[in-house]
Amino acid sequence: LRYGALVTKRRARAAVVLVWVVSASVSFAPIMSKWWRVGADAEAQRCHSNPHCCAFASNIPYALLSSSVSFYLPLLVMLFVYARVFLVATRQLRLLRRELGRFPPEESPPTASRFVSPAPAGPYASPAGVPSYGRRPARLLPPREHRALRTLGLIMGTFTLCWLPFFVANVMRALGGPSLVPSPAFLALNWLGYANSAFNPLIYCRSPDFRSAFRRLLCRCRREEHQAAASLPGDPSGAPAALASPAESRQCPPLN
């Protein structure tokens, strides 16, 4: 409910930078420094010394640390936050229905009774005769929040289903050896995790907010291209550079 006040552009940028810094610290620093080789088993050492072996066999501390920081801790945070959001949304909807239940339904034609309750007389009536209260919860509570909640749940569910098998197998291989999880199965689980990146555009595009943001970004790029073309000199024949047609400019929504 306080998302607009808490999540500012500065905090969002700081969160993105923090995520990339943590990812680089977990991945690049230990791998480039070869910390993940310390204490590895004999099979892993043979793979490291073989230039034709591309398997990534890490030691137990690095496998546990990287799996915890990269997946398990973020998963716990996401589950906690999503549970809090779901509980708050459910409580607010219950309170809203309780308040709206105090007003009697309107006895009017079916087309109007679906949306409004009887307009009160006196100073509480709106100028157009439309009541300022008494609407049904589905009309007062915008479906935008419902769609956002469903999209968030779908994103978290897809992320968990795609990456949980791989990180479980990663810890099992580190603790029990490569024989515990065969290499073909481990590779398939790894690619299942990569497939999550292919599902994300399909999931995010279900949200009108993301579609609107993508449209603004694409139209901004098109406008910048047209402005760059307009700033260039004309062709040798003396004709000026082509500008965007009125129809093309109307396709792009105005930027704030």
Automatic annotation (TrEMBL):
A Pfam family that the UniProt record links to this protein: 7tm_1
TM ranges: 12-32, 71-89, 148-168, 188-205
Keyword Iron-sulfur: no
GO molecular function, one term: epinephrine binding
Low complexity bias: start-end ranges: 228-247
Keywords: Cell membrane, Disulfide bond, G-protein coupled receptor, Lipoprotein, Membrane, Palmitate, Receptor, Transducer, Transmembrane, Transmembrane helix
Any one GO CC term of the record: plasma membrane
Keyword Transmembrane in annotation: yes
Domain of life: Eukaryota
Membrane topology: Multi-pass membrane protein
Chief localisation class: membrane
Domain G-protein coupled receptors family 1 profile: 1-204
Segments of this protein annotated with the region Disordered: 228-256
GO biological process: adenylate cyclase-activating adrenergic receptor signaling pathway; norepinephrine-epinephrine-mediated vasodilation involved in regulation of systemic arterial blood pressure; positive regulation of MAPK cascade
Localization terms from the record: Cell membrane
InterPro entries for this protein: ADR_fam, ADRB3_rcpt, GPCR_Rhodpsn, GPCR_Rhodpsn_7TM
Role according to the record: Beta-adrenergic receptors mediate the catecholamine-induced activation of adenylate cyclase through the action of G proteins. Beta-3 is involved in the regulation of lipolysis and thermogenesis.
Quaternary assembly: Interacts with ARRDC3.
Name assigned to this protein: Beta-3 adrenergic receptor
Lineage: Eukaryota, Metazoa, Chordata, Craniata, Vertebrata
